[in-house]
Design goal:
The structure is a homodimer. With about 130 residues, chain A is mainly α. Chain A has 6 helices and 2 strands; from the N terminus they run ααββαααα. Chain A has helices at about 5-10, 15-20, 40-55, 60-70, 80-110, 120-130; strands at about 30, 35-40. A two-stranded antiparallel sheet of chain A has the order 1-2. The longest helix of chain A has about 30 residues, at about 80-110. The N and C termini of chain A lie far apart (about 55 Å). Chains A and B meet through helix 3, helix 4, helix 5 and helix 6 of A and helix 3, helix 4, helix 5 and helix 6 of B. The structure holds zinc ion (ZN) (4 copies). One zinc ion sits at the interface of chains A and B. The structure holds a DNA duplex (30 and 30 nucleotides).
DNA sequence: TTAAACTCTATAGTCACTATAGAGTCAATC
DNA sequence: GATTGACTCTATAGTGACTATAGAGTTTAA
């Protein structure tokens, strides 16, 4: 199949498929006479794997690690488990950060409930003076 | 004061101060004989405002809007309030996304509690086959 | 006097793409 | 056979908010 069909089947954009190839996340497919990329079932599976990982916000560098691990099917999978655990930790950190941020923003927003002139807007005044709790 | 001192006082890096100047978020300061940037109290206040906004993850484009609004002290501040409201909405969206992501990742992680060989790792198998709930 | 610490400009790199330009190819319709 | 539209190719630039580096000049303290 050509790249457009692969894109439709996987939900990746055509450009990002070419990008993954350049970054060596997927192997370069064979080409047609006129240089079109031609993909087979195996290529499709590769890309689906990558797409699933990206849906989970796993970085391309991490995906490369996972693909490397898959190359050694007889080794222990502890590195896989570790990678996912670390990823979950990262997300927890980001969530904690966002919660704080939301608190600060809600606090800031409360400084101007009624419409004021810009000069008297409590939000702008706070932004000038307060170090915004963090 | 020179750029290094301004950086220390505001918590911005020297490079990002120069970057803000290039992006016209702060006005170009006067220069010393040998072309060093020299900042005064007003420059410091400008940058503190920007730093506070950045601490709240307000984008540079939004900061520009706020700075423009500050130029018209007699107008109503509804645009300020609206901007902050929208920003809070954005953060809520991101938090919802992250919660889903964490759910999917936790689910994925549970597919391999005990160490397996890579070949039998439930995580890798799931990544191949499952569309990762979203 | 010499070394460390600072400043300057300009440029490239980060991440995971998206968008564009300019050219070639293919399928279907008139 | 001609034309249209949809597709493909490569190469390059842009996104956001910086960080890092190179190579040069300046200030300050020991
Ligand atoms: Zn990760
Ligand atoms: Zn207000
Ligand atoms: Zn915003
Ligand atoms: Zn496992």
């Amino acid at each position: 199949m050509k790249i457009g069909e692969l894109a439709k089947l996987t939900g990746c954009s055509v450009q990002s498929i070419r990008f993954y190839e350049k970054e060596e996340l997927i192997s370069a497919p064979r080409r047609s006479e006129c240089n079109y990329r031609l993909y087979d079932q195996k290529n499709l599976e590769q890309l689906i794997f990558i797409k699933h990982c990206r849906n989970l916000d796993i970085t391309l560098a991490e995906i490369k690690q996972l693909l490397n691990l898959k190359q050694s099917p007889e080794t222990q999978c502890e590195d896989v488990n570790y990678l996912i655990d670390e990823h979950i930790k990262q997300i927890n950190l980001r969530m904690t950060g966002l919660k704080k941020l939301k608190g600060s923003l809600t606090d800031l927003r409360s400084k101007c409930r009624d419409n004021q002139t810009v000069k008297n807007c409590g939000i702008l005044q706070d932004l000038l003076t307060k170090p915004t709790g963090q």
